[in-house]
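Entry 12.
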Amino acid sequence: MAYPSRVAQVRLKNLTKQFDGVTAVEDINLDIADREFMILLGPSGCGKSTLLRMIAGLEDPTEGEVWIGDVMVNDVLPKQRDVAMVFQSYALYPHKTVQENIEFPLKVRKVPKPERAAAALDAATSLGLAEYMARKPGALSGGQRQRVALARAIVRKPAVFCMDEPLSNLDAKLRGETRAELIALHQRLASTFVYVTHDQIEAMTMGTRIAVMSRGHLEQVGTPQEVYDKPASVFVAQFVGMPPMNILPAGSLEPGDHLVGVRPEHLHITAEGPLTMMVQLVEKLGHETLVTGVVGSKRVVVRQESDEAHPVAGDLVRLSAPEATRHRFDATTEQRIDR
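Predicted 3D structure (tokens):
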């Protein structure tokens, strides 16, 4: 298959979107590099899907600019933006076969039938769908239907793929398999991927960079490892990482009026630790054990190796954390403090 060679950098400048006076996205500035796999990550209602829809042209910005390559596309119709959208709901035509669904964007463009059939077969083969071309969506599994939706997007050969939580309807096993397929697909296609999710595992394993959003604002943009290692705020620290980072009250672990964050794997149960925790729950997960309790009024989680000695519910234990593993945040702004 011949893939596009045009530049597909996406630039968002001071982008704001309001609905009936409610601000969904506010003053977003984000540069997405050509052929990058950018993840828009955040909880429901944070504005990530609205941002994606403005890139695709399905929503008009209230303020600001959307650029694809060297063209500002605010006034360009969605079908003329060289963007393909993949939705959570698949959005397949139930009365059409797999082949007809995949061919449909080319049929709309009046591509000759032999040419569009060949392109559909090429896209389907790349996603392991060649043997299902005569079936209708109702005869496919959820993972197969999602691959049909991807093939329908691929056949257009867009410069930019916009994907809105495409894996959220799949079970855990299929999500894992389809994640791997999407990573391989991005490596094969000369396209830019912009991918919306609330799932941090998808973000950490798929993205070249992550843009973490909260309440219509960008909290942090960086590689998955940068965001994990140096979260810019308490929000990012607790949203990226599972279980979330523990945020300890000022003065409890070390002197000072700042909050201290420690990831569960960096908290240790020791005889002389400065923190006292009342154990409430011990979860043995096979490969690891999670010990949950309270320090003062704060919920705290400790991640232990499965072969370590574990406390039981009701125990009082002491906790410590090496200084090099601590993250410090301003108690008022909750922004990161670097020393």
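Annotation: The helical segments are 48-56, 98-108, 113-126, 142-154, 172-188, 200-206, 224-229, 234-239. The chain has two domains: 10-235, 247-337.
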